[in-house]
Write a structure and sequence with these properties.
The radius of gyration is 38 Å and the shape is elongated. Helix content is about 55%, strand content about 10%. Keywords: Coiled coil.
């Protein structure tokens, strides 16, 4: 994926596509460009108040490119499953790192800490069931201090030498999850925001993190969500935002046209039922656009123009709306509560605290600049470290009190504004010429009184409630009288004439927006066509790499992957993955197993994360093999090897299958193991061979004087058996891999060798039923070791240091092929 399709300005590419199309008018190009730049510029351009926008350059570099970094270490304390401060040291260069650990060991806490430090959230927390994770983010055993520190080794470029950058997250004591302070710092420079590294957009388009939950969620959240995720990864979120602005404008402008068209349909239906000759004439005038509105009004009103207009006015009065009493009670109640809450705060005390906070802040700045020294105000105290600690705490408390008071003041301001403007939208009712209505004057008086707020703020809640009651009573009387007067004036033609006049008003309003609506529709159509072209252009290299990765990971899958496309708009947008099963074409997503869908998700999203345009020289995958069978793991390792040539690939795994596959094929990799001890103390160490770990476990068991001999004699044979089988597994799978044997055949042969002796025979003799008696007797430590693993210790075997050494020697013989 080169920069031509991914790294340049999306607006510039869209402009170029539209400008090169002779069928697209310049004003359409300008409107699309404005929509991509923001709501304000779009509104100005649509309203005709903006100058011709300047055409963006295809390649615009206003600032140095973002720093490119490898992961160097992840240090965590008090976060998720990690209690005391623990550091995960990583090889900060290209290659493979696998961090293994059983479920609950704390390994995924490192991945979540990295994600939170980079993005400020976590996919798992944002999911439907994320409340549980958000509530339990602080470690139960050692939650203080809670912090995250991520060190990156920055890759040098043409203008900058390699250096170290750090992203940190620090929580205040007892602070909530999102109360943390996020910061970044390049070595030798001052602390800044995380955004200073220039990674914000890249975290959307080249996200270097993916967990098992995300892999599953890729297809579980629905087609529209998958479409949007791919669109973001393709860097087309600007286009999506512009399309949203155009669609909103289309909906808003189209509202008047829709109302007018619907009213016309209803009108023509009613005209068909009318017997007046004018109805047939109006029906002809409304048969096709453009409608002659002047002719329609002249035909409709004729000699009864004044009467029809009068009736229409009375009907509008009869439909008069005023604020409801329940709403008035709500507004008044909120104003009372706001007044009481504000009065309960000590305004003078808060002002004093604010002034004191300002003084403390200035003193802290002075101390930061000048260091320890006498107080410049009282000239008796000393500004030192102890004073600074106390002053910072007093400042925090003062600022909290000030913020609380400001919130109360803002609430009071909003409540007062709501009360003062409560009757502002009530329409004034004017006198209808020729009609005397007794209820009009009381209504006008009630409305004027309602809009006249009393000077005292405390009196305004009661005023709102009383005025609303009086206004409702006056409005009800006015509506009743206007309806009765309209009924008395109505004749057979008047209802039809009123409907015609109402439609003419709607049509007139719609025509004012039609020109803008046509512009928006043309712009939306052109933007979507350009987006489809860009989408196809940017998706093509991703499809090629996805197909390549799928071929590596599809071991034993009979599903072939073809083209991937994003289709549809609005609520019908979806992703199409062409495929074939045993040569028969079909939609791939409908026939894939869960493990195949996980593998496809990896194949689709890894290309975007590893494009040359990404500043992240690392890729972190949390538990990607959880749903994979052994064959898929072998294919996944092929992908890791290829990725490791250009990226630092970090994989968190809950079991030892991936490290075992790496050892079997002698793939260079950093293998780490995470364990969780008492009190959430997490330990990171080199991932020893499984057989060696079992030997160490057996040694710890046998030499522990506090463990009963009966327990040792029951538990030790199992550890002996696991050590011997792990050694045999490592050698057998490694030799078979070097010989080029298919992984599934190797795995099947291993599974068929049910006992420890048969697994050893398969390894040393080449067949599960092979004779290993000579091999066992060739060295004295082999026979007793296998005897313990097979029959236990009831036949006289002694569990001591000699037995442990025999086990260690036997494991060594098997692994070494002796």
């Amino acid at each position: 994926m080169d920069g031509a399709g991914l790294g340049g300005s999306v607006e510039a590419e869209v402009w170029e596509l539209l400008a090169d199309n002779e069928l697209v008018a310049e004003e359409t190009v300008y409107l699309v460009a404005a929509a991509m730049r923001g709501g304000g510029e779009f509104a100005d351009q649509l309203g005709g108040d903006a100058p011709v926008p300047e055409r963006p350059k295809v390649e615009t570099i206003d600032a140095p490119p973002p720093l490119r970094g490898f992961l160097r270490s992840i240090t965590v304390s008090g976060f998720r499953g990690i209690g005391g401060r623990t550091t995960l040291e990583l090889n900060p260069y290209r290659g493979i790192t696998v961090i293994s650990g059983r479920n609950g060991s704390g390994k995924s806490s490192f991945a979540e800490a990295l994600e939170f430090a980079l993005t400020g959230t976590s996919y798992r927390w944002e999911a439907k069931k994320g409340q549980h994770w958000q509530a339990s983010w602080r470690n139960l055993h050692a939650g203080e201090p809670a912090s995250i520190k991520i060190d990156f080794a920055m890759e040098p470029d043409d203008n900058r030498t390699g250096t170290v950058a750090t992203i940190g997250v620090d929580w205040p004591p007892d602070g909530k999850l999102y109360a943390a302070e996020h910061w970044s710092q390049v070595k030798g420079q001052k602390r800044e925001s995380v955004a200073a590294l220039g990674w914000d957009q890249a975290l959307k388009t080249h996200r270097p993190l993916m967990s098992y939950d995300e892999l599953g969620g890729v297809f579980e959240e629905g087609q529209a969500a998958l479409y949007d995720a791919l669109d973001t990864l393709l860097g087309l979120d600007e286009v999506a935002a512009a399309e949203g602005r155009l669609k909103d404008a289309e909906k808003q402008l189209g509202g008047a046209r829709k109302s007018a068209n619907e009213a016309r349909t209803r009108l023509r239906n009613s005209l068909s039922e009318a017997t007046d000759t004018r109805a047939e004439q109006v029906k002809k005038l409304t048969a096709r656009v453009p409608y002659d509105l002047d002719a329609i009004k002249a035909t409709t009103l004729g000699t009864v123009t004044d009467q029809a207009a009068t009736i229409a006015k009375l009907r509008r009065i009869a439909a008069l709306e005023v604020p409801q009493l329940a709403k008035a009670s709500e507004v008044a109640g909120e104003l009372r509560a706001a007044i009481d809450a504000h009065a309960a705060g000590d305004d003078s005390a808060v002002k004093a605290l604010t002034a004191r906070a300002g003084l403390l802040r200035d003193a802290l700045h002075l101390h930061a600049d000048a260091g320890d020294g006498p107080c410049p105000v009282c000239e008796t105290g000393t500004l030192d470290g102890a004073w600074r600690t106390a002053a910072e705490e007093r400042l925090r408390m003062a600022e909290a009190s000030t913020a609380e008071h400001q919130a109360l003041a803002l609430r009071l301001k909003k409540a007062r504004s709501a009360a003062d403007n409560f009757f502002g939208e009530v329409a004034d009712v004017v006198v209808v010429e020729g009609v005397d209505m007794a209820a009009l004057a009381p209504f006008a008086a009630a409305l004027k009184s309602a809009r006249t707020a009393p000077p005292a703020l405390a009196d305004r809640p009661g005023h709102v409630e009383l005025a609303a009651m009086e206004l409702n009573e006056a409005a009800a009387a006015l509506r009743k009288e206007a309806g009765e007067r309209a009924d008395s004036l109505e004749d057979a033609w008047a209802p039809v004439a009123g409907a015609i006049v109402a439609w003419v008003e709607l049509e007139t309003a719609a025509r004012e927006d039609d020109a803008s609506l046509d512009k928006v529709k043309r712009a939306l159509k052109c933007l979507r066509e350009a987006a489809d072209t860009l989408r196809e252009r940017r998706l093509a290299p991703m499809v090629d790499q996805t197909s390549e990765f799928w071929q590596r990971m599809r071991h034993e899958s009979n599903v072939d992957i073809g083209n991937i496309s994003l289709e549809g708009v609005a609520n019908r947008r979806h992703v199409v993955v062409d495929g074939a099963v045993d040569g028969v074409s079909t939609g791939a997503l409908t026939v894939m197993s869960q493990g195949e869908l996980h593998a496809l998700a990896l194949a689709m999203f890894i290309p975007r994360a590893t494009t040359p345009a990404s500043p992240f020289r690392f890729l972190v995958l949390d538990d990607p093999i959880q749903a994979m069978d052994p064959a898929k793991i072998a294919g996944f390792l092929d992908v890791l090897v290829e990725l490791g040539k250009t990226r630092q690939v970090i994989v968190f795994s809950h079991d030892d299958r991936l490290p075992a596959a790496i050892r079997a094929r002698s793939v260079p990799a950093q293998l780490l193991d995470v364990t969780r001890e008492q009190g959430s103390q997490v330990v990171v160490k080199a991932n020893d061979l499984p057989a060696d770990r079992y030997v160490a476990d057996a040694e710890a068991l046998i030499l522990d004087d506090d463990i009963d001999d009966l327990i040792k004699r029951k538990a030790a044979p199992g550890l002996f058996r696991m050590a011997i089988e792990a050694a045999a597994h490592q050698r057998y799978f490694g030799e078979r891999a070097k010989a080029g044997a298919p992984h599934h055949e190797t795995d099947a042969a291993w599974e068929q060798a049910k006992t420890t002796q048969r697994k050893v025979a398969l390894t040393v003799a080449g067949a599960a039923d092979g004779d290993v008696s000579g091999w066992k007797s060739y060295r004295p430590h082999r026979f007793p070791t296998l005897a313990i693993s097979a029959s236990g210790t009831h036949r006289g075997a002694t569990l001591d240091r000699r037995a442990i050494q025999d086990l260690r020697d036997t494991v060594r013989d098997i692994v070494a092929g002796q």
